[in-house]
Amino acid sequence: QGVLVPGLGTFAVVHEQINGKEEQYVVRRPVFQLDMDTSCLQELVFPTVMIPGDIEIMPLDYWWLSQTNSLPPNVVRGCVEETILLYSFRLRDRQRPAFVFENIGILSCQDNVLCMQFHCSCVAGLESQDTWVALLLT
Known about the structure:
Layout: E1 2-5, E2 9-19, E3 24-34, E4 57-59, H1 62-69, H2 73-92, E5 99-101, E6 105-110, E7 113-118, H3 120-126, H4 131-137
Parallel strand pairs: 1-4
Antiparallel strand pairs: 1-2, 2-3, 5-6, 6-7
Helix pairs in contact: 1-2, 3-4
């Protein structure tokens, strides 16, 4: 399953088959497919990530988020939307802030390359059998 964060992109978990010398691995790893207004991304390069069509994409669950911080869902929605809008304005103004997703990773821009770097703990939490393979791929 994937989660669409409107105005920013989609987080998903993909299964990837890797052929080793002696073994074949199928690992679960996180991916992020950027979906921002291209006017924000002038002069920036970002990896093209395609999420397979068989993965169900769900909208961000503002009600669930509101339960984790005791704020009403409409307030959470407003905070998320304003944060993404601020981030896109900063990118448009050629500022390159890092966008931190707690327990997931960091969306950062280095040398005009905008990419999502997942925390090792996030990858390890998704793939318990072949963690090192998943970490290397991510």
